[in-house]
Design a protein that fits this description.
The protein is an all-alpha fold. Helix content is 75%, strand content 0%. Helix 1 crosses helix 8.
């Protein structure tokens, strides 16, 4: 199947940029370095640790590191299903537009590299941080469940993820100068390639949206809502585990009420990071709500409403963050 000339030129541009910004894990990112545990990992604008006013500076830094570990783990988890879906899309182009095929193959290769990077980071943090950290979701099980949903819904979720990845880096991570240099560099290099992936996501979503028809789109909206609910379930489990881990390894003894607040604060931060910040992103809003009718848009908004509280109380960046 041929691609419209304008679309083909966009695929070609992605290839050109991909070649220019390509990086290697050891040569460019790690470079033999270790994490600096005297520094913050995830900035306050994402971790929301400053909203837990009873934490001292050391505890806030430690909680940013626990959340930073999970931030890398969750990206590795979602990239499992993203890579598999893009591989499927590439197969569909195998005997069609070879420019689009190359762009999708390059994206698959980059997603596999990102998964390897995040596995390397987890191994490094596991060696450095106290025992007891727990990953509550299996990447293969999550990928199997996600890929059982419609392509329209999976591509909408993927676009959301890859846009908020960029928004987080540009608005919150890049401006901060007190972060662990290696941790910050990881997400600099990640951002450089994800910016191209979001272009491909948008192109592929538009092609899928043109194919599904009214009934298919209506069912796909339900799939997308179900996927958001599944993501929130993962976040609830990981937030509870991370709060327990933090309380166990922190230098401060917390009472029951404080532990409850820590867990609620971590869950709020994760909902902000992985759901609400992406749902607010202007480019995502334009693409998603430009594809659905008023009733479908209302269903999506109603599903998101219980999570709308999860925004920074005193944001350090302009909202909404934009990719």
């Amino acid at each position: 199947m041929s691609t419209h000339p304008i679309q083909s030129s966009r695929y070609a541009k992605v290839i050109e940029t991909s070649r220019r910004v390509r990086w290697e894990i050891e040569r460019d990112v790690l470079r033999g370095r270790a994490f600096d545990y005297t520094r913050t990992f995830l900035p306050h604008g994402l971790s929301l640790v400053d909203e837990l006013e009873f934490l001292d500076a050391a505890d806030r830094r430690l909680l940013s590191q626990v959340q930073g570990r999970t931030y890398a783990y969750i990206f590795g988890l979602v990239e499992r299903f993203i890579g598999a879906k893009v591989l499927d899309l590439g197969r569909e182009q195998a005997l069609g537009d070879q420019v689009a095929l190359e762009a999708l193959v390059r994206m698959t290769d980059e997603e596999l590299k990102h998964q390897e990077l995040f596995r390397r980071l987890e191994a490094m943090m596991a060696a450095d941080m106290p025992a007891g950290y727990r990953k509550t979701a299996d990447p293969d099980a999550v990928a199997t469940a996600v890929l059982g949903k419609s392509t329209w819904a999976v591509l909408a979720l993927t676009l959301d993820i890859e846009l908020f990845t960029q928004a987080h880096y540009r608005a919150s991570i890049e401006p901060q100068h007190d972060l662990s240099p290696l941790w910050k560099d990881v997400f600099l290099y990640h951002w450089r390639e994800e910016s191209q992936h979001a272009i491909l996501d948008e192109l592929e979503f538009a092609k899928e949206d043109a194919k599904v028809g009214a009934a298919g789109r209506d069912a796909a909206v339900d799939d997308l809502i179900a996927l958001v609910g599944a993501v929130d379930g993962i976040l609830q489990g990981q937030a509870a585990a991370d709060a327990r881990y933090f309380a166990a390894i922190a230098g401060t003894r917390f009472d029951a009420a404080q532990i409850e607040r820590i867990q609620a604060g971590v869950l709020k931060a994760y909902r902000w990071q992985y759901i609400v910040s992406g749902a607010m992103e202007p480019r995502f809003q334009k693409v998603l709500f430009g594809a659905v009718d008023e009733a479908q848009g209302a269903r999506i908004q109603a599903a998101l409403a219980p999570l709308a509280y999860a925004v920074p109380r005193r944001p350090e960046m302009s909202l909404p963050m934009a990719a």
